[in-house]
Structure formats: C-alpha cells, structure tokens
Write a structure and sequence with these properties.
Helix content is 45%, strand content 17%. A seven-stranded mixed beta sheet has the order 2-1-3-4-5-12-11, with helices on both faces. Strands 7-6-8-9 form a four-stranded parallel beta sheet, sandwiched between helices. The radius of gyration is 24 Å and the shape is globular. It binds beta-D-glucopyranose. The site of beta-D-glucopyranose has 11 residues, from loops.
C-alpha cells in the first residue's frame, strides 16, 4: 500500500512539473500564444527573405515566442496576418507595411487590442496607431546614390536616367528626396541632363521639393519596386531617347532588384557606351553584379542591426521598459519615435571589407571575388 502511494505522489509531482514547464515556455503542447508578431511585405524580393532569416538567427535562443508572416504585396493579406497574430495574443507587432497608408487600418486594429506597434523599415502613414519606428537613414541612402553618380561621371551634359520605388512606400520618397538634393545642383550647373522625366525637368531649378512635387516625378519614373516594370520602363526610355541622350550615361536606380534589370537593359543597348548605375540592399545577386562590373554600387543596410533594434525594442516593451530612440519621423498625423541606423556605400573597392570581412556573407557565395 505504501509503495502504491509513493508511486502516486511521484506521478502527481511529475504532472505538476510538466504543466509548469509548458506554461513557462509557451512553445510546448497545444499552446499557440505568441508574444511578438512580425509581418513582412513579400517573399518575392530577396531583401525581405533576408530580413526573415536575420530575425530567425537573432531569435534562435530567445525565450520569447514569435511568428513571422508575409503579406505577398497585398494590404488585405497584411490585415489578415495582423488579425491572425492578434488571435494568438501578441503583445508587440513589428510590421513592414506593403503600402504605408493602407496599413493604417491593420495597426489600428492592433492598437484596439492594446498591442504596441513598431513600424519596421517602412513607416506607416496617416495614423496615430504607430508607437515606434526602426529604420535606416533613408535620406542618406538616396544622398549616397546621388553622390556616387556625381563622383563617377566625367564631363558635362551627362544624360541622367531617373528611377524610383513605389509611391505607396514612404521610403521611395525619402530615397528620391535624398538623391535629388545632391543631384539638383549638378543638373542646374549642366553636369547632368535629365533624360527620362518631363516632371523632373520642370522642377530642375528647385532643390527642396514638396511631397506633391516628389509625387509627380515618382508618378513618372516609378518602378513600383518591380524589376519587370523597371525593365519595361528602361526599354521604353531607351527606345525614345535621341542620340544626345545615349553614350556615357548615369542611372539612378532605387534598389538592387530594379538596378539589375535596368543594368541588363542599358548593357545591351549598343548606343550606350558606358553607364554608372546605383543600387541598394547589398543583395547577393547584386554583389555578384558589382564583382562582375555590371552594377556600379549598392547601399549596404546591415539588416542584422535593424533586426536587433526591433527585437530590443520589443523586449523592452514586454519588460515594461521605455525603448531607446534617437529621433522621430512625422507620418502625416503624429511624430513617431524612431531608432535610426546608418548605411554604407559599397562598390568593387570595398565589397570584400564591408560584406565578407564583416561576416555578412561568405566569400564562397561569390565567384571572382
Ligand atoms: C526598402 C528597400 C527595398 C524596397 C523594396 C524599401 O522600403 O527600404 O530596402 O529594396 O523597399 O522592397
């Protein structure tokens, strides 16, 4: 009888312990409680797949439960993702919106549930339902692209082809604004001639553009962040361009995905003798293009830092601490407290130092380094 009782007590203790463990980790059993929800815009661009991987690497040893969902370029899917995560009880939402304004209703739903919202890389606009913003210095990204073109062309009257990101992305405005500020004086002094935008041509004497003016240019030279659209536009522009807009040219391409497809088009036009083309994101395929001399530069945004900033912020919030911020961004409705990270210009001169020696990528991932 004594033995049976002993066995019974051991069983009780084991059951209680297992229950406690399950409750603590939140990962075991059927529990679907998630503390931090992460929503990224699309799996179709290497940039965001990279962010997913960097989040996974950073969270590998974390005690917090997280879930990452992709919106596949759809604001409706994005809203659905946010709702799924709300149903799992998230306390913090980290979200890079597909469309900055359309994401307003998704984050307002999150706020209603008492969730803290962190905009990740792209600002969510026209709503007061964003608490924090982690970002790179996007004006500096554009300024670096513009400056690279200035530093790497020779002579005067150099044809300048302008391209931009999607108008639904606040960053596309910041990148273009940053580039325009440095390029405009060089357009005014005759170093460059604008080759493919009548709207930019009409504004060529103004260094500071309003959002509306930027919107007009973007409306003409947008790629929508789509490499195919970029390719079609570049083809159309080169077909229409007169002989004085060919030869040695400069191309402002907003990111790596669009830069590669634009570079492919310029590279196959026999009337283009040489071109300098910008990029952004340090995507592996573009690093190979830089090594091969097919893309001139990229702006390296170390996603490890952005991920670490977002996670640190989320953990502070979960621990009831005030996250550290470095400034703020106005989103059209409120000033959103922001943590900003610097960017690095990479071309064939420093590609090894910045991307391989820093262990961002491995040398074996590239040919001819
Ligand atoms: C990001 C870029 C990216 C682009 C297209 C921007 O908001 O900052 O890194 O290339 O979106 O996805």
């Amino acid at each position: 009888m004594k033995k049976v009782w002993k066995l019974f007590s051991v069983l009780i203790v084991m059951t209680v312990l297992t229950g406690m463990l399950g409750a603590c980790s939140g990962k075991t059993g059927g529990s679907s409680k998630v503390s931090v929800g992460i929503v990224l815009p699309t799996k179709d661009e290497p940039r965001w797949v990279q962010d997913e991987q960097r989040f996974k690497d950073a969270l590998a040893d974390s005690d917090y439960t997280t879930e990452i969902l992709f919106s596949q370029g759809s604001s409706a899917k994005e809203k659905e993702n946010v709702e799924t995560l709300l149903n799992k009880g998230i306390e913090v939402l980290i979200i890079a919106p597909h469309d900055g304004a359309a994401a307003g209703s998704a984050v307002e739903a999150a706020k209603k549930e008492g969730v803290t919202v962190i905009a990740y890389d792209r600002l969510i606009t026209e709503t007061d339902a964003v608490d924090y913003y982690v970002t790179f210095d996007s004006l500096a990204v554009g300024a670096a692209q513009g400056q690279y073109l200035i530093d790497n062309v020779k002579g005067t009257n150099v044809p300048l082809y302008l391209y931009a990101g999607a108008s639904s992305d606040n960053n596309a405005f910041l990148f273009f604004e940053g580039a325009w500020k440095v390029l405009q004086p060089k357009i005014a002094d005759g170093t460059f001639v604008i080759a493919n935008s009548t709207e930019a041509e009409a504004l060529k004497d103004k260094q500071e553009l309003t959002r509306d003016e930027l919107g007009k240019i973007l409306g003409q030279v947008t790629t929508n962040w789509d490499p195919n659209e970029a390719k079609n536009k570049a083809q159309t522009h080169l077909t229409a361009a007169a002989a004085n807009l060919k030869g040695d040219v400069a191309v402002l391409a907003p990111n790596d995905g669009t830069a590669r497809s634009i570079a492919d088009v310029f590279g196959t036009d026999s009337d283009i003798s040489s071109f300098v083309v910008t990029g952004q994101d340090a995507e592996k395929a573009s690093i190979q293009y830089i090594i091969d001399g097919k893309q001139s530069m990229t702006v390296f945004k170390d996603v490890r830092t952005l991920v670490a900033d977002a996670i640190d912020m989320a953990i502070d919030i979960l621990d009831d601490k005030k996250p550290e911020t470095t400034g703020s961004y106005n989103n059209g409705k409120v000033d959103v407290k922001a943590k900003q990270t610097d960017v690095i210009v990479v071309d064939e001169e420093n590609v090894k130092k910045e991307l391989i020696d820093s262990e961002y990528y491995e040398a074996s991932e590239f040919k001819g380094l």
